[in-house]
Amino acid sequence: MITNSENHRPRLSAASAEVRGAVRAALPVSGLVLVGLSGGPDSLALASATAFEARKAGIDAGVVIVNHGLQKGSAEVAEKAAAQARALGLAPVVIRKVTVDENASQGLEAAARDARYAAFESAAAELGASHILLAHTMDDQAETVLLGLARGSGPKSIAGMREERISVGGTGGQSARYLRPLLGIRKATLLQMCVDEGLEPWHDPHNTDPKFLRVKIRTEVIPYLEENLSPGIIEALARTAAIIDEDATALEEQIEEQIEDIVEIAEAGISISVPWLRANPVAIRHRTIRMVVQAEFGVSISRERTLAVAALIDSSGEQKRVELPGVVATRRKDKLIFQASN
Questions:
Q1: What is the rounded average pLDDT of the residues 92-114?
Q2: Residue 184: which residues within 8 A CB-CB, separation 6 or more?
Q3: Is residue 333 part of a domain?
Q4: What's the rounded mean pLDDT across residues 123-148?
């Protein structure tokens, strides 16, 4: 039973104060915000804090609940979450049922995430919401860093999730601005807030199912590292993400400042100045190539493909080609040209 209604609120606990403070710092000054609510401890605590802080700030706040249909009783879980949101004073309250391909090539977790974000972005567009609030925590950030390291990913993955991210024409074909106000807060704090405020969260059984890699990291790898390497491993990994994100952001901004001077429109594509690429450090060369291909064609290329394209920069021959997914890279004199492949 929810006890933090307008007529009766429990004494503010340290956990609630911490979460409310993080939300207060993140909220925009106006407009409608939507909380991505699953009914779990993290998102329920976020919804409660958002309801309180949005009311104080005089802005509108609602929720989007996504029913993935992957578990028995998922519709009832969604309805219970909706009832809790309404009791908190949040409106509008929207439930979206999505279809997830359980045999998708990218895996169940990724397929569910794509469907969820598409639902978020569609709802935000229809309701005119300015921001979508997500309940990712410091623990989630640490898991993301470990996943990136395990996969041999680059700085973008190891930098983890950003507190603010703009999705332009994303999975739902809509633009959306995401806020993650809880990245500096531990899951234990959010669970304690639910206890303190009399909230009744749903505990997703998928979060304890070892068939999911993230669950193995959460339940096996991180506890092992905590015991045998560092008792503050969660905080250490979150700091690592923040430091790498600062460096990655600086590189991106440096490139963006010069992009108009080094990039030209080419036939059915775009070109980059080879002399400029050659004059810059390898990290900037590679990041420029990835950024241009992503921005122009919406294609994310691997390190191996990036290295193959970068090899064209020092190539003495002409018309050498590198095949990328849906794109062809060609060196022609002092231009590195990217064109859509037929």
A1: 86
A2: 22, 138, 238
A3: yes
A4: 96
